[in-house]
Amino acid sequence: MPTFHFELGELPPAAEALRAEVREFLRAELDEHTPVQRVRSWGGFDREFSRKMGARGWIGMTWPKRYGGHDRSALERYVVLEETLAAGAPVSAHWVADRQSGPLLLRFGTETQRQRFLPAIARGELAFAIGMSEPDSGSDLASIRTRAERVAEGYRVNGTKVWTSNAHISDYMIALFRTHHDAAKKHEGLTQFLVDTKSPGVTINPIIDLRGAHHFNMVVFEDAFVPDDMRVGDEGAGWKQVTTELAFERSGPERYLSSLALILELIREVGKVPGERAAVVVGRLVAHLATLRQMSLSVAGMLEAGQNPNLEAAVVKDVGTTFEQEVPEVVHALLSVEPTIDTGTHLQQVLGYLTQSAPSFSLRGGTREILRGIIARGLGLR
Amino acid sequence: MNELRTILSDVVTRLFAERVTRELSEAAERGGWPAALWQAVEENGLTLPLVPEAKGGAGGTWGDAYVVVSAVGRHAVPLPLPETIVASWLLAEAGLEVPAGPLTVAPTQRDERLRLVRRDGGVRLDGTAARVPWGRAAEHVVVVDEADGRVTVALVAAGDARVTPDTNIAREPRDALAFAGAPVLAAAPAAAGVPRDALRLYGALVRAAQMAGGLEAVLGLATRYATERRQFGKPIGQFQSIQQNLAVLAGQAAAAGIAAANAFRAADRGDCWFETAVAKVRVGEAAGVGASIAHQVHGAIGFTYEHQLQFVTRRLWSWRAEFGGESEWAALLGRSVAERGAETLWPLLTALR
């Protein structure tokens, strides 16, 4: 009946040896980082840090050496991911490229594209953004309308992408455009492209989020030209590729660790000898955290074994984001502490940041409702 | 899955699916002892997975035992099989012979103690233990107490106890056993690493696995019902609200399964206190959420005694409270983590054990 299956994951000795190395590196690099800087992990865009990660060989780890990769296992990569997230390292200048743009090019790109982009990504020098959502197409991604029309030696693009995180500071975006329109077959006629964010005809406008921060953008294409050699995969293959890419996006440990910094501040706050109520709260959060790590590790094990854990990844993301969102609520319920922006204690600032960020956890990378629909399909209900 | 686990899995699934009938479950709830089922379980070698082959067991691991214990939950088996598995393991590890027949463990309650005392030229057992699983049906009781400053495992005949019957809400026997100078049949220091509260710990461990199995069962039942039951002209499983709820149940079942399996793996590696505490808290919470969703999906039919869902959900509600509920284990876990400090949490979660 239930078609998903979580086997316990196990990390090989090589991966555990790597853990100590990564931890030591992060300890030195992030020595001065405050808890509120750490909780911004994903929001932290630091090209110098990403270049150092690249120099260590910790970006594009599983890719072949001929593309600048390191031929390491998915489980070794998993250790690097979970350690960098747990430490709250500023990862967003390389995260998207390492997680999905690079693997996408490796799988569907041309040999020229791989040679051109992958080594630079692995060095931590190229930041990527993702152009999927549009003003009228969110969860219903297949309804996108941004058109890429064939012209001499390439395509002319018109339309608008939204929620494009870090487009304003990224080098490239991988965008999904419509190359053919047939109202009855909306999943067909979609194609992915590499877009240089500095191209003429591409305008990037900020969208300020509820925290007052600038990560989101609206990217407007007005007769922007994209050359033939920047098309990723075949014309019309975009839907299949983009669902593969979303599976990469959903499978990592980033879907349960966003609130770790607040759990750590809570433990500091309640002290060595907490009262009964505080002890119960801490223990419960730790039980959820420890279980989610095992679930996430299980997905990593399936990836390593060459399986396709799309369904399990959706389960982990749903359970994980529910947990991440619960942490600020639970802390608020336990402690009489006001959330702040940049005043007050570390706990207050971390709580302030996470309380405001939490709504995004079950939106990014596929909404909770979409994920639960995927899980329901796995159960045979649709 | 290794070979032994595959065999075990096939055997328990076939045996329980065939033999744990509605009639058998109802008879057990009326107080009957399913002797024939017990005999079949014993004959199939399911009672002693952790006992060495030289002592008549299967010579397996906790990972193998997980297959059996979770199946007890999945099929709502009315037998003290998890209790027998824990009790026989404690005996064998202490170098004691394992008697045939159903075993149970006592005491099970926090701050309760059965005392091993030297008297009349032998070792005797004194004290009362409340809510002992299957106390009336077990042939022997395995007790853990401190004697001469050492954690000691002792075996007594259940027949030497005065039994006051009681049950949990699943109508499984949870009887008070009063011992007044009962002769100890065998006793020995527990194996290294077995803590004084071993019964509480390993009781929580097996209950977590039983609940994980039970959650798989209610997910299966609710999913099947949603595809069969039609309202408004279509199967109710085609409504998004039902799909979303079943997806939540699937997530809870998955979390429960991995938390419980991880605790059994830790038991094979040695000290499983942390992983068991994690499992009892996480699985217990999943049991509450999962039972609730499964009932909601089933509607009124699932609220009847006639429907099989309640055999599992009443067990989930009982088992989550037994050997320490979520708040008790969470408090222990929280204190342990707080004492070590925030800096050690992540290293603790990622430590190889």
Total count of helical runs of at least 4 residues of chain A: 12
Termini Cα gap of chain B? 20 Å
Rg over alpha carbons of chain B: 20 Å
Mean pLDDT of chain B: 97
Helix content of chain B: 40-55%
Order of helical and strand elements of chain B:
HHHHHEEEEEEEHEEHHHHH
Quantity of strands of chain A, as a count: 8
Assembly level: heterodimer
Low-confidence stretches of chain A: none
Structural class of chain A: alpha+beta
Strand content of chain A: 5-15%
Domain count of chain A, please report it.
Answer: 3
Give me the count of strands of chain B: 9
Task: Compute the number of structural domains of chain B.
Answer: 2
* Estimated radius of gyration of chain A: 21 Å
What proportion strand of chain B? Answer: 15-25%
Q: Could you name the CATH topology of the largest domain in chain B?
A: Butyryl-CoA Dehydrogenase, subunit A, domain 2
Tell me the CATH architecture of the largest domain in chain B: Beta Barrel
| Second rung of CATH, namely the architecture of the largest domain in chain A | Up-down Bundle
Quote the distance from N terminus to C terminus of chain A. 13 Å
* Contiguous uncertain segments of 5+ residues of chain B: none
Secondary-structure blueprint:
The complex is a heterodimer of chains A (382) and B (353).
Chain A: H1 13-29, H2 35-39, H3 47-55, H4 74-87, H5 95-108, H6 111-122, E1 128-131, E2 147-151, E3 154-161, E4 172-178, E5 190-196, E6 202-208, E7 214-227, E8 231-232, H7 238-250, H8 260-270, H9 276-304, H10 310-334, H11 346-361, H12 368-378
Parallel strand pairs in A: 1-4
Antiparallel strand pairs in A: 2-3, 3-7, 4-5, 5-8, 6-7
Chain B: H1 3-19, H2 22-29, H3 35-43, H4 62-74, H5 81-93, E1 103-106, E2 115-119, E3 122-133, E4 140-147, E5 150-157, E6 162-164, E7 174-189, H6 198-228, E8 230-231, E9 234-235, H7 240-269, H8 273-298, H9 309-319, H10 326-340, H11 345-350
Parallel strand pairs in B: 1-4
Antiparallel strand pairs in B: 2-3, 3-7, 4-5, 5-7, 6-7, 8-9
Helix pairs in contact in B: 1-4, 4-6, 4-7, 6-7, 6-8, 6-9, 7-8, 8-9, 8-10
